[in-house]
Amino acid sequence: MTGEKAAPKCRKVMSAAIPTQSETLTLQAALPLDCGRSLDGVQVAYESYGKLNEARDNAILIAHALTGDQYVASPHPITGKPGWWVRMVGPGLPIDTDRYFVICANVLGSCMGSTGPASLDTDGNPYAMRFPVITIRDMVRAQVALLDSLGIKRLHAVVGGSMGGMQALSLAANFPERTAAALIIASTARHSAQNIAFHEVGRQAIMADPVWRGGDYYAHGKGPEKGLSVARMAAHITYLSEAGLTDKFGRNLQDRSEKTFGFDADFQVESYLRHQGIAFTDRFDANSYLYITRAMDYFDLAEEHGGMLANAFAKSDARFCLVSFDTDWLYPTAESRHIAHALNAAGKPVSFMELSAPFGHDSFLLDVPALDRVIEGFLKQ
Amino acid sequence: MTGEKAAPKCRKVMSAAIPTQSETLTLQAALPLDCGRSLDGVQVAYESYGKLNEARDNAILIAHALTGDQYVASPHPITGKPGWWVRMVGPGLPIDTDRYFVICANVLGSCMGSTGPASLDTDGNPYAMRFPVITIRDMVRAQVALLDSLGIKRLHAVVGGSMGGMQALSLAANFPERTAAALIIASTARHSAQNIAFHEVGRQAIMADPVWRGGDYYAHGKGPEKGLSVARMAAHITYLSEAGLTDKFGRNLQDRSEKTFGFDADFQVESYLRHQGIAFTDRFDANSYLYITRAMDYFDLAEEHGGMLANAFAKSDARFCLVSFDTDWLYPTAESRHIAHALNAAGKPVSFMELSAPFGHDSFLLDVPALDRVIEGFLKQ
What we know:
Radius of gyration of chain A: 20 Å
Strand content of chain A: 5-15%
Shape of chain A: globular
Number of strands of chain A: 12
Order of helices and strands of chain A: EEEEEEEEHEHEHHHHHHEHEH
Largest interface: A-B, 56 and 56 residues
Oligomer: homodimer
C-alpha cells in the first residue's frame, strides 16, 4: 500500500486539532476535475477493515453520505461515537470483514482528513471559497486513485447509501472496469428541484451568517455555527418521515407539563432539532457543507451521458442492486425505479426492491433487518 | 359600525409608513388571552366588501393564512399586487359580494394594521418580544370582537385556508353560536411534529440573525432580513408539491446554458426561492413571523377540549365543509379526514372532499376550478 500515515492537514482549523487514526494517501498526480481545473497534492483519508486477499479481488468500497465520513466501523475521533455503520460492517456482519477487505474514504471536499475547502492552498492559507466546485464524479476520481494506490484493479463491490449511492452509480458508470457489483441504497441518479431547494435553504442559512465572512472564517477561531446549525436542522427534517416524527415526538412537551407561552423549546421535536443542529457544528466544516451539497445538486448521471440514463451504464458489466425505503421522501422509491428502468433498458443485471421501514431516508443507517439480508445476499452472489 | 378609520400604529416601523386603506377598530375592552394576560387597546384592521343586509345575516368572515392579510380582494398597499383571493371574492364570484357582506381582518400578532409585536406598548416603544405569546383562539377572540362591533351576531359562514382554516375551526368550536357554517380548506386541527419542526427552523433562522437583536430591531432601521428570508425559503418549499416543483423548474438552469461551478443561483429553483425569500421581507415583520408560527404550533383543538376532537364541536350547530388537496404534504388529506371523523362522531353535518390539484398546499390560493364550485355550492346551501 502506498498510503502514508500523515497528520490530517485539512481538518477544520477552528476546532482543536484531533489526530485522525485514518491512513492518508497523498496523490502524486494532479486530480483533474469536472470544472476544468485540477488539484495538486490531494489527500485522501481512509479507514480499512479486513485483509486484501492475494488475488486482490475481495475489496469492497463503501461510499459515505453528505455528512458522513470514513469512520464506518471505527469510533469517530471527535464525537467518540461508534462508526456510522457498525451494524453492517464487521466480522460476521453483512459486510463481513472476515471475508472482504473493506475501504471507506472521506470524500473530496469534506473535512475529516481528505482535501476540502478547509485544507491549505499552496500559499499556506485555507482554500475557503477558492476551493474549486467539485462533483460526485470528482469524488469518485479521488476514490479510484486510492484504489490504484492500493493495487485494486476491480472491486468486489461498491456500496453506498444516499450520496454514497450517487458515488456507487458514478463509479459503475464512469469507471465500469473497476467494479463487479454496485449496491445503491436510498439514492437517486439526479437531484430533483425539491432536493436542490432544500440544499439552497441550507447554503443561504450559512452564507447569511455574518461569521461566515465569505468563507474566510478559519483564522477567526469560530465558524458560522448558527447558520450551519439552521442548515442542518432543515436538512434533518428531510431525513425523517412525517409518521416517524409523529411516532417519536408527536406533540409531546420537553421536560414540562404545560406550554410556557414563550419561545423556548416547548416541544420535544424542537429540542431534538436544536440539538441536532448544534451537535453537527462540532464535527463539520460549514464550507464543506456548501461544497458537498453543491456537488449533490449538480449530480445528474443522465446529463453526463447524453441525456439518457441507460447510456450511462452502457460499458458496465457489473451486477446492480437498488434498495429504496417506502417512507423516504427525500429520494423516494420512484427515483430507484427510474434507475432500475434505465438498467433494464441497458440490458444490465439489476435487482430492485423497496423495503418497508418507518425511519424515512435515514432507514439505511438504522435497524432494518431486511436491509442486512439484502446486502449480505447480494455481496455473496 | 363602530370601526374607526385610523392610521395603523403597528406597521413594521423600519419600512416606510404606508397608509392602510383598511378600517381599523380599536377594542374598548381588554382582550383576554390564553396565556393568562390580556391586551389593552387592541386594534383590528379589516377590509370589507358588499353590504350587510338588514337582518345582518349575510356576513362571511374570511380568515387569512400565516403570511396573509386583510387584503383579500383589494390591492396590497406595499406590493401593489391584487388581493390574495380576487379569483374567489367579488361580484358574481364564488364568495359573491353582491350577495354577501365579506369581512377579512388582519390577525392579532400580524403586521398589517392589527396589533402585533411591532405595535407600540404603553411606554411608547414597540412590544417586540414583550408581546404575549398568542394562540389561534386569541386571534379568533379579536375577530369575534370585530363582529360584535359590526353588530353581527351570527355569520352566514366563516371561511379559511391553512391557518385560516384553523381559525374557522376554532370559531365554530369556541364560539358555536357565532356561525351557521364553517368552510375549512387545506388545514388541520393540530400541528404535527413535522409542522412544528419546519416552523422551528424558520424561527431559529430569524433568531440566529444578529440584526434580530433579541427582537429589538425596530429602532435600528432594519430587521433581520436575511434570517426572515431563509425562514420564508424553508417554509415556501412546504407550500409546493415535489411534482409541482419538478414540473415548474425541474433542473432547468437560470439564464445560462451551462452550470457555472460556483454558488450563484445556477438553477431556476434556487433563483425562485431566493426571490421569494427577499420579497417577503419587504412586507412582513420578523417578530410577527415568530409569534404567528408559534400560535400555529400551539394549535391543537382536541387538547383544548379534553383531548377529544369530537368534544370541540359538541355545542356547534354549524354545517361544515372540509376540503383537502391530494398534493398537499403540509396538511395532507389525512388531517381533514381526522376532522371529518370527529364531526361524524359528534353527529354534525359535514361534507369532506379531497380535490386533485398539482400545486401542493398552495392549491387553495391558485387556479383550481373545482374549489370554486365547492365554495360557491356550500355557501348557497
